[in-house]
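Lecture 7 notes. Example A: sequence first, then its structure tokens.
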Amino acid sequence: MKTFATLITALDSSNKTTLKKEAIIQFLTHATEKDKLWFLALMTGKRPKRSIATKDLKIWVLEITGIPDWLLVESYAAVGDLAETLALLLPPPLEKSDKNLSDWMEDISILQHASIEEKKSFVLSSWNALNTMERFIFNKLLGGNFRIGISSKGLVNTLAQHFGIDADIIVHSIMGEWNPYEFEFEKLIKGEYSDTYLSKPYPFCLAYPIEKELEQLGLVQEWQIEYKWDGIRGQFIKREGEIFIWSRGEEIISSQFPEITAALAQWKENMVLDGEILAYKNGRILNFTELQKRINRKVISKSLQTEIPVQVYLYDILELEREDLRPLPLQQRRHILAQLIKHNNQPTLQLSPLISPTNWTELRGIQATAREINSEGIMLKKKDSIYDVGRKKGNWWKWKVNPMTLDAVLIYAQKGSGRRSAHYTDYTFAIKDGDDLVTIAKAYSGLTDKEIIEVSRFVRQNSLEKFGPVRTVRPVLVFEIAFEGIGYSKRHKSGVALRFPRILRWRKDKTVTDIDTLDNIKKLIQ
């Protein structure tokens, strides 16, 4: 654990990529085989489920320290992270532990089946043998929400350079299902297990936001042009009769879409397809908020399938009868995909429709009206492009429509975490519903550091109530909120939900009388 704690400290204390890489290499040089596997597992989201409730951890800290509950709440508000707060409040350890990261992970995994008394005994003895940083990491691991301060791409590039392995091989190898108890680290990253699991997906090929004038892209006829749909991007895998649907977030979501699984089962071929899952009814694509009702449900009833039917728009084919088609030009892959769809004739699986403008000016007009059909904009893909790993600038571009906006007033604020833990950076905004204010969105980004300091000062001077770390503030500050989509939602007091809300700008020229009304906002819903 000490080696791992040293790594996490180094990753969190610097924003420089070179220093982060050096810290990872140092860890890999000294860590055990099992610790390296667990590091990779944690980095790719393969962590044990939450084994102990947060409320129990807080109760035990209060018992050990003897501090009142209100002081813990205030400490949490100041620190901004509960795991770190608990680690800081505990008294110095009386013992030492030499257990490795893998030993801790195995003990935490076993906890899921332990009694509450056994869990408490384990946690208290562990806290008594760990220093503050190690306790922080331990608390994070217990909570099942551990994050490491480096991007997946940064990790892959570091592994590729250090071990002299192609980055594509590493990405493909660590993506998907694997268990740190059953694999060897170097064999895993070298791809020696890649063909042993039928469920293995490919890394997604992604697009960059367009940053050129359209005319600089050459002839419009050189590009495959499609709408950018707001659904769930997925890979649809059928190998040897087994079917898997992977989301872009590397989750298997097959059970959430039984009608898609049934349609894939009718296909005669083994293949890996890339496409978008969309809520689709009566000939039109529904708002994303409708599709959300199907996500993360354990049981998808027949009534829900009828209420919110789905359809897949297929973009690409990556594999056919175990042959990797990604090196082929997009135009050729598209032809193969079109023939397969025609041959299998499953209405649930359709070829994504193409847009064929005669010139760039015509495409600008099409892009401007994309939101009318619940599209986010336009995708441009070079017809001769291969299916790359991740993003490669120049071959695929996404051209999103301008975001929708509304004016809202700040009513709640909460301190951030990490380097922003001293400032209020998490905001809740409201709009008018008659004479009342109703919450419409939360946002965490969009202000400069200077503006954050100014807003934090306002919050401290104008707080009305405290709810743990949250402060209710006088409804005075007005902000312009940008968002990508809007739909009805029973989970929100306003009855609507915004997609990807963020602060566009602080409207110091407006007062609360100028903010938007709920009736007007609902008119934006298609």
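Example B, a different protein, same format:
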Amino acid sequence: MGFTMMRGAAGMAAGAMLALAACGAPSGAPEGDRRGQGEPADAVYTVLTSGTAIGALEVWREADGYSIDYEFRNNGRGPTFAEVITLGAGYPVHWTIEGATTFGNQVDEMFHLDEAGARWRDSTGEGQASVDGPALYVPQNASPYALGLAARALMAAPGRTLAALPGGQLRLDPVETLEVTGADGVAREVQVWALSGTSLNPSWVLMEGEDFFGTVSPRFAVLAQGFEGEDARLRERAGTYESERYGAIQSRVARRYDTPVRIANVRLFDPDALALTDIVSVRVEGERIVAVEAADARTAGETVIDGAGGTLIPGLFEMHAHLSETAAFLNIAAGVTSVRDMGNDNESLDRLVADIEAGRVAGPRVFRSAFIEGRSPFNSNSGVLVDSVEDAVAAVHAYADRGGFHQIKIYNSMSPDWIPEVIAAARERGMRVSGHVPAFTNADAMIEAGYDEITHINQLMLGWVLAADEDTRTLLRLTALKRLPELDLDSEAVNATLDAMAQRGVSIDPTLVIHESLLLSRNGQVNPGALDYIDHMPVSVQRSARSAWVAIESEADDAAYRGAFDQIIETVRRMHARGIFMVPGTDTGGSFTYHRELELYQEAGMSPAQILAWAGHGMAQYLGAGDELGRIAPGYLADFFLVPGDPTQDLKAIKTIAMVAADGVIYFPADIYPEFGIRPFVDAPAVSVAQ
């Protein structure tokens, strides 16, 4: 199915900044709207991911504002926005956005300012505010052109800061000046700015004077037409900006003590006994645990972290990551000290892994999957794209020659006919095979071909409700879930598939939390998986959590999607009862959503203690690292986290983490979260030096 969102684009859409509010400015729609009139746009920008053009941003200058079209498609999906902006005194005072988000939720957003104040409407509902001074409205959905309008306003603001609506404060900081060369050979000078304040991270905005030139991230770019040749260099620069940002955060939050470290006054979670030990202390030297000793054991000069009677839990494994710099940091803060990356821009991930391993940034240890996708109008642009079975087999060998990849991951646009040869090549090179079910086949065929693991529960279940000619490279692989309530889970087809998985030892990566978000999120209501943390998050994240993912157009749609999630949970329950091995992953970045992923397995019949053992040492064993990870014992790597409560009784205790050790480096989430605009959940523990 490929729920994975375009990280850069999603961030820019959610955090795009727009209208400068100034009381008394004129209002109303622009006098003309030249979109669709056959007139060429006044400014055109190319949307690219990992160097591949996937869409466009077109801007028409009207008499008193702008008309804008923005659309891209990657992996068979993407947003479509049509914007109309009215300017007053040079700044937007009226703005509408229509269209659809990446997964199809309808967009009908409006902002308006007049003498009575500001008012707006988005998918979370309506809002209003009196405006006593300059303020920038932060839209829920907008094209990247909004970043340029905000940058222009902030350039002229005192201290380059302005209050934001619905809340927070925006800031613009200079980064560097670059010379860029177009296809015509003409060089231009652009200034790179960091625009931040209402989301987790800044956007890197490129301005040519007061004119928008583009925006970049390590994996995504929007650039003025004719400058596509600068994409790789500019994305590399964005990678440098992010490395420097996260490196600076690392220097502030990573605690590398010159002495051995003792975590005292704690109970340990034992994954074999599925229970907590008595109160003990744990001594760490460098990256290893060297002793588990009595609660009152001390050695003069060592650093002592007081666990205050809390629980120390082995680090957890996020088994469906597409790791980014932000996710790396936030997973550490969430006690996720290892991830399995399921497909990425390989160069960007190379850089991130190198930074993590060198200690320049915080991040989990990474187990990498070799992503292979067939070329089609709907293909993803991660990993390696292939055009033939020969190319696909060559990609397997290239990944194996390179080393560092424990499995192949097959994606939607691969031809089903190629799969046996791809699997044979993977077996030859000692690699496992996992993946989506390619279009125009089903899970039964992939199990027969030799899959070791199926990725996403919907990829399995769609085979029971789709016709052979229906194309799952499109959003159908999501919207067709509405058919699941009519599925008889006692049918011969369902039992045959589950029996085959159990008999052949085929595991599954269900990614329950993303299905919950897809099927149960509703406009104006907090996503049920976000209830325990959403009030701690920045404004843009809060608004996103109160929005539907897909279009819910009727009561029948609402009931069908809710019923689909019930069927998914029941299927997972039946898998667990059959002994089919499952792995916990989110496909949503992990951290907070990973905690929710684990919670959902309680509905499949697993106890909190079983879940913690499975998500820690169980996954370490699955990935061949069980002799070094997943236990708190002498000789094991110092990967663990501290919570005040007892998660074997209430799994929600893992959401309040006071301390994390990753390769022996100590982190306090209370230090990390404010760096991302997140309000901490619990105070840091007391630290002292033993006498």
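Note on Example B: Residues 1-30 have pLDDT under 50 and may be disordered. Residues 67 and 631 are 58 Å apart (CA to CA).
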